[in-house]
Every structure is written in C-alpha cells, then in structure tokens.
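Re: How this chain folds, sequence and tokenised backbone to follow
Notation: Tokens come from a learned vocabulary of local backbone shapes, not from coordinates.
Start of record: The labelled sequence and token lines come straight after this line.
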Amino acid sequence: MDEPLRVGLVGAGPWAKAVHAPGLAEHPGTTLTTVWARRPDAARELGEAHGASVSQSLPELLGQVDAVAFAVPPAVQAEFALEAVKAGKHVILEKPIAPDLESAERLTEAVLAAEVASLVMFTLRYAVETREWLDDLAAAGGWSGGSARWLSGALLSGPYSTSPWRHDSGALADVGPHVIDLLDAALGPIVEVVAAHRTAEDLWHLVFTHEGGAASTAAMSMRLPVEPTVAEIAVFGAHGYRALARRPVAGIERFIALLDDFAAMIATGTTIHPCDVRRGLHVQRVLERARQAATP
C-alpha cells in the first residue's frame, strides 16, 4: 500500500493497552489514527501514549479510518462491529465474535455483504511455530485424536481478574475459542460436541468428534492457582505424538503477524483468510453446542 492503513481502536482496557495500541502504532503498514472508549480518560491516556487522537463517539471514529480494531467484550463488539462493517470498514475482531450464535450470524452476514476484510484474534494461529506445526500435521495426515489443556488463575489475580464479562462467561468464552480453533485446525472440523461438563468452579471438560472420525478432549479453567499458565495441545495417530511447542512471547508479537496478514489482505483486495469472520462463526457454533451439552 502507498499509505499506511488508518485504523481506529475501540476499547482502552488492559488488552488494548498491551497489544492493540502498540501493535497498530508500531506496524509499518498501519497507523493508530484514533481511539474511542466508553471511559474517555482511558481513551485519552492511550491515544496520547501513541500519538493518536481521541474520538468522542463511534461515528466520529468511523469517519476518520479505513479499518477498526476492537478490544471490547463480545456483547459490545457485536453491536459496534456491525456499525463499522455497514460503514464499509475492515475489521479486526476479538474472540468470541459475539455473545451468542444469533449475533455472530448477523455480524458474519454483514461482513460478507459489505465485502470487507476481517480477521479474528485467534492469536496463537499467527505464531510461526503454530503455522509450522499445522503444516506438518497436514502433510503427514493420519491423526486419530488430540487433547488440550488450558489452565490458569487469570480470574483470581492479574490484569484481567476484574473483567466482568470474563467472570460472567467463564473459561469457555475466553480461552475456549483458542482451544476449539486449534483442535479443529489440527484434526479437521469439529462436527459434534459429544460431552460437556462444567463444575461449579468453572472447570470445563469437553469431548469432540471431528470430520473424518478423529476425536479430541479439552480441559479448561481460569480459576485454578496455576502459575505459569498451562496451555498444551497435542495430536496423536499413525505418525506418533506431536505437541505444539509454544514460545513464551508477548501477545504483541503475534498481533504484529496478524497485522501483516490484515494489511496484505486489504492491499490485494482479498477477504478470505483461515481466521476471517467465517472462522469466528464456526467457533461460535461449537461454543453454543458446548453450552447446550453442559446444560442440565
């Protein structure tokens, strides 16, 4: 592109401060143009730190940018992203893309109708080691099963422990999209949630079946005194056991890789990507099936 992409940031919480704002400001293909949040003081502080203006409303932000990055809870994102897409803006969406399946379907339909670029923050998918792992699995084939564990104390202490939506929605909504996305990408599309159990302390156990016959399991919690976070995923089958070797890097590194893809999509007029809004909708459908399966 001849000029950097003008991006507006909606949200000014811990994740926006640690990842979105510095990533957008530092990436050569993007400019953090303006920030809007429901807390004006937080938006002003974030904007001043990165040389961006502060918008007083979402319409004001939309009038200044080519694209919008969202760092807000799912229910808020579903509403605001719909406005951005209808205004013809490209979007970077948090996961899950909406609070429920109906809202996710409505947002996806709007993105496709507007023919704008979209990427969802399945951050692990943008890591080099994840891409290499998935490429290796696809080349080898013959995988019959897999497992994932994502266990942390993120809701007990730390920057996200005061997040109301995370407390309300729990581990399934926050880390569940990562787990579902990776197992699905590794073993093929998840076609059924065979079993789902949620304890009173929000420890989830899930069993999936995948297109082609593979099966996988997942355990997730954000209320366990585990330090550091356990985030493990592996598959097994005809070629043995292959675990994803994650590097302990800051989220901004993966966000920069996402921005590489995002800028390239817009520069080439492409709206199709493995992590576009359609992927977000697929994961939302699996989340909904898990909730239904866990309901007494």
About this structure: The mean pLDDT is 96. The chain has two domains: 5-122+251-276, 128-248.
